[in-house]
Amino acid sequence: MTDTPDPTASTEPASREPSPAPPAAASAATTPDTDSTGWQKLPSRAVLLCTIDVSLSLAVVFAIAGVVLGVLTVGSWVGIASGLSGALLGAGIGTWIGLRRYRNTLWRLDAHGFAVRRGVAWQRETLVPLTRVQHLDLKHGPLQRLRGLATLVVHTAGTRHNAVSIDHLDAQDAERLRERLGRQLDHDEDA
Prior knowledge:
191 residues; alpha+beta
C-alpha cells in the first residue's frame, strides 16, 4: 500500500502571520526607579546600607542605656539582660527609620540643577543650580563597593550648606552625574 498525498494538505511551508506591533515603549521618565516628575529613587541595593547606618547607632545607644538603667536599679545580671534588650529594641527602631529614610530619599538632575529631596516628617529639598557647582567628590566605602554604590558630594559656592551629598547612589549613576555636572563646570570656566 502506497501513501498518497492528501490533496487538501499544502506542500508550502506555513507562512507566519506578522506579529502584532509591540506595545508603545514606556517613557524614560517613568522607569521603575523614576516617578513622573523625574525624581529618582535610590537603587534597591541601598536598602541594607541605609538600615545599617541607623540601626547600629541606635542599638549601641539603647544597649548602653539599658545596661546603665539595669545596673543602677537592680544589679549587674539584670543590667546585661536589659542591655541586650535595649540593643534589640534600638536595632528594630533603627531598621524602621532606615527603611523610611531609604524610601524618602530622591534625587533629580534637570535644566535647573541637581536636587535632593529627603525626609519623612520634615521634608527638605535642596537644589544646587548648575552655575553654583564648584567641585565634585565621589566616595566609595568598602560596603558601598561590595554593593555597587557610591556617595556623590557636590561642593557649591556659598557659606551655608556649601556641600550637598547623597549616599548610596548606584555607582554608575553617580559617575554619570559627576561627569554631567563636571562638563557644566568646565563649560562655565571656559566662558
